[in-house]
Automatic annotation (TrEMBL):
Higher taxonomy: Bacteria, Pseudomonadati, Pseudomonadota, Alphaproteobacteria, Sphingomonadales
Organism annotation: Sphingomonas kaistensis
Signal sequence extent: 1-18
InterPro entries found in the cross-reference section: DUF305_CopM-like, Ferritin-like
Name of this chain's protein: DUF305 domain-containing protein
Keyword set, alphabetical order: Signal
UniProt region (Disordered), positions on chain: 213-286
Low complexity bias locations: 223-275
Pfam family, one: DUF305
Gene3D superfamilies: 1.20.1260.10
Domain DUF305: 31-122, 139-207
Length: 286
């Protein structure tokens, strides 16, 4: 009887230990997800090198920027997007980049700074519309992930590859805005931004193939910073356009004074009335 009791107690203790082990395993497994996410983020930051912090900040601020409609969301998010390019360009200039990478960074700072000024002229205040802001989330997430993963043989190539994904993200976001009914001057600005960013993509891809920057610019049609700075913004063009003069309507034309035929007839002298009596006329006196 004592042997049975001891055996039963042993079984119970073994089961208890197994349960504790299982619970501990579950607790560890439950902590694995955030740990793996943290490790993945750390790896991405390490791959991004000196650009990691700027990329994370740009992504957070773009997600937080919310406008009053689809177009205003594009504006506010694109302003942050362009500022991110400026921040990354300033970073690479402190990393002893190649001549072409340094030139590209300097051009980016000037051009993106000018476009930020153009975009700010079109910003309007209004109640935030989170629903339309969500339209841009997939494009922004895709850009962020690809930028963080992009790397090269040195800091210059890494900068080029990150900027390539950065430009592609701007094109994707512009496509979202254009597909969702943005009109007027803002649509013109979006089309201009999209076209400029596509040219930057073509130039960057040519540089990654080994083309000198000057040749890559000529092939892709990218404007220099001086040319871009001198180019008027769509908002300025709209303000400068002369207003059409109103045409005269039929009602306006009929209201013009006309010469009165009645007045003219009255102005002419009337023939003198005859006062000759019949007998005088017969005698030849009148």
């Amino acid at each position: 009887m004592n042997k049975v009791t001891r055996f039963t107690a042993l079984l119970m203790a073994t089961a208890a230990l197994a349960a504790c082990g299982s619970q501990a395993d579950n607790q560890v497994a439950g902590n694995d997800a955030p740990m793996e996410a943290s490790m993945a983020e750390g790896n991405s930051m390490q791959m991004s090198g000196p650009f990691g912090e700027a990329e994370m900040r740009m992504d957070e601020q773009m997600m937080a920027a919310v406008g009053s409609d689809v177009g205003q969301n594009w504006l506010k998010k694109m302003i942050v997007h362009h500022q991110g390019a400026i921040d990354m360009s300033r970073i690479v200039l402190d990393q002893n980049p190649s001549t072409d990478a340094a030139k590209m960074a300097q051009e980016t700072i000037t051009k993106q700074g000018k476009e930020i000024e153009d975009l700010q002229k079109l910003v309007q205040n209004g109640a935030p519309d989170q629903r339309s802001a969500e339209l841009y989330r997939p494009a922004m997430m895709d850009m962020h992930q690809k930028m963080m993963a992009a790397s090269g043989a040195d800091v210059s190539e890494t900068f080029l590859r990150k900027m390539l994904e950065h430009h592609k993200g701007a094109v994707a976001m512009s496509d979202v805005a254009l597909a969702n009914g943005v009109t007027g001057t803002l649509r013109t600005q979006i089309q201009k931004t999209r076209a400029d960013q596509q040219k930057e993509i073509d130039m960057t891809e040519a540089m990654l193939r080994g083309e000198p920057m000057q040749s890559a610019m000529q092939q892709s049609g990218v404007k220099t910073a001086a040319q871009a700075k001198a180019e008027p913004a769509p908002a300025d063009t709209a303000k400068a356009a002369p207003k059409a003069q109103p045409k005269a309507t039929p009602a306006a034309r009929t209201s013009e004074p006309k010469a009165s035929t009645t007045a003219t007839a009255k102005a002419e002298p009337a023939p003198a009335a005859s006062t000759c009596l019949p007998e005088h006329r017969a005698a030849g006196h009148c």
